[in-house]
Amino acid sequence: MDKFVENQLIPKYNYGQGRRPNPEWQRLQRQAQRLKKKGLLVEAHIARRLMQQVPSLDPLDPNYRRLRYIRYADDWLIGFSGPHQEAEDIKREIGTFLREHLKLELSETKTLISHARTEAARFLGYDIVVLNNNQKLDRRGHRSINGQIGLRVPPDVVKSKCARFLLHGKPIHRAELVHDSVFSIVTASAGISGDCRVLSIGL
């Protein structure tokens, strides 16, 4: 499946150097500049605020597509920048490949298509989302996180991890660890024995 995605799907659904500018964003930018030149600062500020509510690049650019793929054992995730119908086509192509070449059936209940700006995709215990916050600006006043991928720990996962430390919803001590050293408690909790090393992975 990895080779199928790499050799067929990615070349087919990856094209375009970058998205074209969004015409609506450009219109509001020109309007804000004209108002500022006329000395209408309040109106120019309003136009800039409106400008920050729309994408600066065209999200529907027909000449731009991106497909990203990751797999861990039998869990896999595809990130696709493009229309919903093409996402359906990708799902169908993968289903056909699995059935014809690997004699496997794609689970319709587990293989979901979700819009990453409005729905989270669960993968290996994390919720994968696309960040969107028009108020988060950098030092230049530009939106700084929109379109970036975010990892969130789902509330139900946090609740399940905390459950073994609670009794009737309140924190309790673990009697079996009372006489242990801090080091042995930490290593036991982390499932580590012997050397303890930290691996930093940049995403």
Q: Structural class, judged by helices and strands?
A: alpha+beta
How many angstroms separate the termini? 23 Å
Q: Helix coverage percent of residues?
A: 25-40%
N to C succession of SSEs: HHHEEHEEEHEEH
Determine the number of helices (DSSP H or I, runs of at least 4 residues).
6
- Largest sheet: number of strands, sense, barrel closure: 3 strands, antiparallel
Description:
The chain is of the alpha+beta class. The protein has helices spanning 2-13, 23-37, 41-51, 84-101, 155-163, 182-190; strands at residues 66-72, 75-81, 121-123, 126-130, 149-152, 166-167, 170-171. Strands 3-4-5 form a 3-stranded antiparallel beta sheet, with no helix packed on it. Strand 3 (121-123) and strand 4 form a beta hairpin. The protein is flat and about 75 Å long. Residues 192-203 have low confidence and may be disordered.
Provide keyphrases for this structure.
single chain, 203 residues, alpha+beta, three-stranded antiparallel sheet, two-stranded antiparallel ribbon, 6 helices, 36% helix, 15% strand, flat
